[in-house]
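Query form — protein Xylose isomerase-like TIM barrel domain-containing protein

QUESTION: What is the three-dimensional structure of this chain?
INPUT:
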Amino acid sequence: MEKFNRERLAERARNIPLYLHAYAFHLNMRYERVLPADLLDIAYQQKLKGVKIHVEDGESQSLQKMNDLQLQNFKEKAKNYNLDVHIETSASDKETLTDAIRIAFATGATSVRFYPRYEGYLNDVLDKISSDIAWLSQFDDCGLSFTIEQHEDLQSHELVTLVNNSRMKNLSILFDFGNMINANEQPLAALTVMSPLITQVHIKDAKMIKEGKGWGHEACRSGYGDLPMEEMLRTLLLLGDDKPQVHAFGLEEEVEYYAPAFRFDDEGDNPWIPWREASYTPLPDSHLVDARLAEEKEHALSQIKYIRDLCDKFVDNQ
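ANSWER: The structure tokens for Xylose isomerase-like TIM barrel domain-containing protein are given below.
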């Protein structure tokens, strides 16, 4: 069995479906130095399978702000490069999802990722999310797949229950390498709980920060943090018996992104979930902008090599 797993791991590592993630270029996109179409160029140059793009990435030049012709041009460029497109958004309400689905259809995307952002007691928050997913279920046969991401406030078992109760065949979980930390969970334990439902991944590294009876995290360069990246990648590649269960690994290098603790050891059965804004990384001081944007590009490309080197290691160890 061990030899079989090594061979299966090697085969899947050779063919890992890597996606360029727009957040790896977050600051460049905030300053509109890198735009959605530029991500297609980079993904093509790096021989990746596709791109994961948030509807707001690129500010005034984002997919959300494009007209029909611009969205069609983006779709054609992705098609010409033979790149798969995944759309991401940062809420789960009807209005937000409707817009993301519109953009997904217009760009020829195959998948939409979302995560909920509600304030309130946990049980009330879960009820709101369940209602959002019940509305989304009407799109279960629209040709798109949907993923809900564990995004710092919900715990793994809560996310699994939401997906299982939805009865949607095209809703699954997107596993982020670090976001469980803020929900007071450890990476490998969270991966074990969510593993039956994981189909997509965000790869990043982070430093874990103890905050009272919980944990925050600060994202950092891959290989420089506290996360068991090699073990998580190996486990994710091996999910699925006859074929790989995970079909998209997003390269989400996000150096200096910080998120505080949201869940705590002594919180009780129905804790208060605070409101939070969508994810962002602080902008550099004006005199440091050019250097920081160049550094961000370097980090994004370095992560691609880091993950490919890990995959080469799996191949060599078969």
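ADDITIONAL NOTE: The chain has a mean pLDDT of 96.
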